[in-house]
């Protein structure tokens, strides 16, 4: 649990900016994004950078907040968040999440129509600007108990019945080392310098593959250069991804029905074509089998590939410790 310090104390005011546009305006029936704000109330900004349970000491709040704990509301992205008043109303508990970049989607545009296009944001798990989320605590003047979201106490359940044999879980493995760019028409193109974002803009791992002759100037990746035949090489070979499936459950009747699914999000690093084979490796690094062969994509655009692991009895995909090694083998060698 993360104990929080108060970040800022705000009294929100209205700021109106008027733009005169040559193009016509398109109005929608949606309420404005700031419709949750009551401008007669004060707000305290709480900054969250981890997805966990956070706590706030009520004694650290301004007097008006301390004297009205039952009137407290917590807001995040225009929605009220349930809180729990613990320790005799001396502590506020809530589950807060780090910034996943949802608001980044407003900065992505279609490169052809130049219209806003959130689908261009192919990595939905990360913000390229900040991992911090803002939550706002306020004292509401409402008298309706339904306006105050609280975390309900779980009801005591009798221990009976048959336990569920399994549950679904998602493990996210991300790589945050360098920026990925987008320039499908030219390696050094004005697309790099557009004020909006498009498919391919994000943060990825270091460069992998067989880019044997690229220099730091063109890879834009200063991480881990290697010396090959007297040259600096800014590529790091074919990546091997290790996964621990932990408490893997295998359906004894139909193993394929509950087999683990893997979803890969790949980005090209030059305007050249990529040809990738997904391989399962053994503990010694030897290739056991090709899962997906000849995955072809090009340019900087993000490419997603899904496949299923074989967990049937005797399958080589998963070892006795429920671990799996996946290699992305590049068939194409690119030189400068």
3D architecture notes:
With 336 residues, this protein is mainly β. The chain has two helices and 21 strands. The chain has helices at 63-66, 216-219; strands at 2-3, 8-11, 42-48, 52-57, 72-76, 79-81, 84-86, 91-96, 133-139, 178-180, 202-204, 210-211, 226-228, 231-233, 240-244, 261-267, 273-281, 287-298, 302-308, 323-330, 333-334. Strands 2-3-9-5-6 form a five-stranded antiparallel beta sheet, with no helix packed on it. Strands 1-4-8-7 form a four-stranded mixed beta sheet, with no helix packed on it. Strands 15-20-17-18 form a four-stranded antiparallel beta sheet, with no helix packed on it. The two termini are 50 Å apart. Residues 11-31 and 212-223 have low confidence and may be disordered.
Outline of the structure:
The chain is mainly β and 336 residues long. 2% of the residues lie in helices and 32% in strands. Strand 7 and strand 8 form a beta hairpin.
Bin the helical content. under 10%
Biggest sheet layout? 5 strands, antiparallel
Provide the succession of SSEs: EEEEHEEEEEEEEHEEEEEEEEE
Strand order in the sheet with the most strands: 2-3-9-5-6
Count the DSSP helices.
2
| Gyration radius, rounded | 26 Å
Structure class: mainly beta
Shape field:
flat
What share of residues are in beta strands? 25-35%
Low-confidence stretches: 11-31, 212-223
What is the rounded distance between the termini?
Answer: 50 Å
Total beta strand runs: 21
The overall pLDDT average reads 78
């Amino acid at each position: 649990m993360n104990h929080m310090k108060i970040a800022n104390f705000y009294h929100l005011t209205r700021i109106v900016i008027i733009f005169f546009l040559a193009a016509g305006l398109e109005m929608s029936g949606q309420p404005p994004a700031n419709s949750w704000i009551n401008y007669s109330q004060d707000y305290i900004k709480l900054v969250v950078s981890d997805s966990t349970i956070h706590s706030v000491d009520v004694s650290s709040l301004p007097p008006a907040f301390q004297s009205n704990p039952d009137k407290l509301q917590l807001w995040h992205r225009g929605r009220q968040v349930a809180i729990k008043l613990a320790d005799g109303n001396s502590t506020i508990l809530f589950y807060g999440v780090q910034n996943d970049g949802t608001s980044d989607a407003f900065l992505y545009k279609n490169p052809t129509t130049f219209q806003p296009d959130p689908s261009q944001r192919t990595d939905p798990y990360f913000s390229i600007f900040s991992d911090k989320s803002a939550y706002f605590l306020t004292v509401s003047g409402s008298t309706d108990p339904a306006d105050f979201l609280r975390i309900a106490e779980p009801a005591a359940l009798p221990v009976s019945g048959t336990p569920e044999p399994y549950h679904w879980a998602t493990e996210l493995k991300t790589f945050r080392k360098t920026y990925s760019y987008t320039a499908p028409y030219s390696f050094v193109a004005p697309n790099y310098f557009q004020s909006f974002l498009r498919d391919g803009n994000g943060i990825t791992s270091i460069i992998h593959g067989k880019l044997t002759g690229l220099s730091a100037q063109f890879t834009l990746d200063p991480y881990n250069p290697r010396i090959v035949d007297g040259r600096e090489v800014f590529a790091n070979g074919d990546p091997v991804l290790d996964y621990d499936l932990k408490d893997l459950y295998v359906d004894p009747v139909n193993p394929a029905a509950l087999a683990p699914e893997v979803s890969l999000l790949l980005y090209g690093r030059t305007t050249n074509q990529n040809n990738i084979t997904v391989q399962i490796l053994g503990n010694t690094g030897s290739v056991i089998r090709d899962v997906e062969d000849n995955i072809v994509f090009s340019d900087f655009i993000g490419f997603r590939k899904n496949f299923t692991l074989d967990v049937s009895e005797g399958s080589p995909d998963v070892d006795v410790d429920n671990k799996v090694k996946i290699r992305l083998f590049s068939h194409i060698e690119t030189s400068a």
